[in-house]
Amino acid sequence: MPPALPSPTVAVVVPAKDEAERIGATVTALLAMPVADLVVVVDDGSADGTARLAREAGALVVAHERNRGKAAAVRTGARAVAAREAAAPRAGTGPRPLLLVDADLGATAAATEPLTAPVLAGEADMAIAVLPRQSSPGGGRGLVVGLARRGTLAAVGWAPQQPLSGMRCLSREAFEAAQPLARGWGVETALTIDLLRSGHRVVEVPCALQHRVTGTDLRGQLHRAAQYRDVALALLRRRATTAWVRARRSGA
Known about the structure:
By secondary structure, this protein is α/β, with parallel strands linked by helices.
């Protein structure tokens, strides 16, 4: 049997929690992209109509009964893509790359398409979106971004422009190589470090995306605190792994 050809399309995975306001427009925009022929929305314990609205817009919806965090939602979405491909295999074509997209992009979600080009062409194993200045008010002081950027630089010698960007396209081989994913909000930082450490090619691609910026109220501060915690844990675990490997090598 001849080897499978690279996939000409991607599968989109959208983790979502309480995104009823924007999820319909996000899914509609993603399905309008010729390069995306499957959109999976993972309803991560929403208390609103996120799942129903995503399904009505044309997405395949899988749900967590309770909130399990972003990394778990990404894993669930990837499993749903694999199950769909097993149930309806495409002759002569390999598994689709995964396009990870935040649920709050609305109509601008179609601007994630440039991320797919270097991965589908075999020029990169993961492409990360670089967003323009956001038009909505809010935003923090850059503490979490700074932590993630410095940690990535220390780990692999590269400082990404937007280390926390949730919009990424990666090959299935790269996705499997990055398992297990870091918990919660540490998933993006860990993905970058783990793939670069294993010799995969990572690029950044400008994308004209607009999303809802986290506010400066108590809820926003708590969200950033959770982000900081998860990114710090991801970095500490990778630092510990590096130290363990070096100790093993020095003792060999």
